[in-house]
Write a structure and sequence with these properties.
single chain, 344 residues, alpha/beta, six-stranded parallel β-sheet
Length: 344
């Protein structure tokens, strides 16, 4: 298989975020399969090659498969990499751009997979969910009775949380005597923090609706489940992939504030009654483990390698999707023709 290059704006400072950490984790997993390197394109860094330098000295098509992922930068990156093997590692959806024919999509969730299955149905599509870091599966406290010795009744991570949770639900829970912690700063060990909580609240629907793009995967609820926490979450976008409401997790903002208060208080009082069935949780976490996801990447990369060999080496033209307007005109014409024939 071709070596892989993950294209990122930078790996330090203002570029540090969940999406960056996922790309770096994925690069670590693929490095066990094929030679893998991280390439930056905005910020020059001593430990990574820079995009401009590589393009200047390597004529297309080159020998590597490029992986692009950075949201609104993707269309420009695809233009610069035209004529080279490239794939889009799709996290959030809703950015509004279209993909050139033949560019494969590596979707991190079924929600994103369905989005591109609609917008690019003739492009090669693959499902490669994000992996839970091994520390969550190795150190997450799932065996001990939840709530026993846990100093935090309810844990909320401030980033991405809705105003409803922060300004209404949290104060109301505290008035009922629950020990609620809102985590806002840097935490050295998130596993220890989640192991200390009985219930975790994650409500990102308003955050993503305000930005016009989707929750790409939603790792925090899975991380909480890996630590034996009861999860109350919104069900927007990719969160619906794993959080079967009432079974694996529980919907937050469900009807009324009073309803939320009663259910969360009951979960704190008797967490075992609110946790997912052990077999269901075990299967869910196993499906997100690094070895399983590494195998998914291996299968996808083999298929993408063969795909680009057909397109670039053999000159096979990629399939194209008809424009949406053309499809609507065709359907309108078929209806008109059927109606005309029925009248004659």
């Amino acid at each position: 298989m071709r070596p892989i290059r993950f294209l990122l704006p930078g790996t330090t400072g203002r570029f540090r975020c969940g999406g960056l950490l996922v790309e770096l984790q994925t690069a670590r997993l693929t490095a066990d399969l094929v030679p893998t390197e991280v390439v930056t394109y905005r910020q020059r860094e001593p430990d990574h090659p820079f995009l401009d330098d590589l393009l200047a000295r390597e004529p297309a098509p080159g020998g590597a498969l490029w992986i692009v992922s950075w949201g609104f930068d993707v269309p420009g990156q695809l233009r610069r990499l035209r004529g080279r093997p490239v794939a889009y590692h799709a996290h959030s959806s809703g950015y509004g751009f279209s993909l050139p024919p033949g560019v494969p999509v590596l979707a991190v969730s079924r929600n994103t997979l369905g989005y591109w299955g609609d917008r690019a149905p003739r492009n090669p599509l693959f499902l490669v969910p994000n992996a839970l870091h091994s520390k969550w599966l190795e150190r997450g406290n799932r065996a001990a009775p939840v709530g026993c010795g846990r100093p935090i009744d309810v844990l909320v991570q401030q980033r991405k949380s809705s105003r409803y949770v922060l300004q209404h639900l949290v104060p109301a829970l505290r008035r009922r005597g629950l020990r609620v912690e809102v985590q806002s700063g840097w935490v050295d060990d998130l596993v220890d923090l989640f192991n200390s909580a009985a219930v975790v609240l994650y409500d990102s629907a308003d955050y993503w609706r305000g930005r016009g793009v989707s929750e790409g995967f939603g790792l925090p609820p899975l991380e909480a489940l890996a630590c034996g926490c009861v999860v109350f979450s919104s069900l927007n976008h990719a969160l619906a992939d794993s959080l079967d409401p009432g079974v694996v997790g529980h919907q937050i903002g469900c009807g009324s504030l009073e309803h939320d208060l009663e259910r969360i208080q009951a979960a704190v009082a008797d967490p075992m009654a609110w946790l997912p069935p052990p077999a269901r949780l075990s299967n869910l976490l196993e499906a997100c483990s690094e070895p399983v996801l590494q195998e998914r990447w291996h299968t996808a990369l083999e298929a993408i390698d063969a795909h680009w060999s057909h397109l670039l080496l053999e000159g096979t033209p990629p399939l194209r999707s008809p424009p949406r307007l053309a499809l609507r005109i065709d359907q309108w014409w078929r209806r008109f023709w059927a109606m005309w024939r029925s009248l004659n």
